[in-house]
Amino acid sequence: MVRLVRESFAVVEPQQDEVAKFFYGMLFSLSPTAREMFPANMEIQRSRLLRALVHVVQLVDRPDDLNPFLRQLGRDHRKFGVVSAHYEAVGTALIAAVKKFAKKSWSDEIERAWAEAYTIMARAMLDSANAEDGPAWWPATVVEHRAISWDLAVITVQTDHPIGYTPGQYLSVESPHRPRLWRYLSPANAPREDGTIDFHVRNVEGGWVSRAIVRHTRPGEVWRLGPPMGRMRINRENGRDLVMVAGGTGLAPMRAIIDELCQWGENPRVHLFYGGRVLEDLYDLTNLQQLAASNPWLTVVPVLESEPDATGVEHGTLADVVTRYGAWAERDVLVSGSPGMIRSTVSRMLVAGTPLDHITYDPFTLD
Description:
Rossmann fold; 3 domains; 6-stranded antiparallel β-sheet; 11 helices; 41% helix
């Protein structure tokens, strides 16, 4: 099953935009009520579907990693009002879309493999959703909008009841400026008793949600937050030190983990590589350096791709600099940033000798 699913998906992946369009067209014809769950503009949703599919295909033979991801997706989809009939329509539409674009390479055996794989995925998601007794989403009131630059803001929201996320995880967020356009954002702080959460948001080029959040968010408006998701966290039990690789606002989950570590007396050593194109992109560098000065377990390495004359920083891409420092074979590695940055960094670290099972990253990072 694993081999057939991967090989057939490799055939259609170069046509992923067309596959996604066909899939949603088929889904909405099979289940017209499903259309109400999605925004009017489907461009972002189509790219999100393909990222999820790629991630599932990559993990299809690693159930210890795939099953937690599917269970999280099942809990998260409760906020849409998804029921079992929707899962059936999704499965039919998905197999039809892959079949159409696989063309002559498709076979009955491949169709059975996809049906089996989807059944496993859907069952895991449904079981998780049905077992969940917490809210499908939480209301959160914006209490502060702090502009860092023309394209970057720190938004602080407050929930009536604290959300039990683990530092490093992310939440799906819906702003009233973009109804039904949920975006994944990582809290930049460990959970607080008062229920406040800081989000670092940069205006992504072409990003409907990020642009609205950065430019138009005002205190008093109410967001909706979905349940916590993601695998990035610190493992205190294995005794390993930590390497963090953060590009741009990918710093947020690392900041939350560091925030939690600052509450402990003893910690593993942490090397944080914090990268951007220009110095202005390292918007939280001063705060991080102050934290490092008072916490000897933390080392902060700023990295710039441009501005070759800048001093006090390493030059190159994050992938260049991290591997220049070594293979980090004895450490756990957390990576967060754009999909391109994650791909290049993980690939280079694997070549340098970092064990795959020491590297953790999450698939949802863009608007």
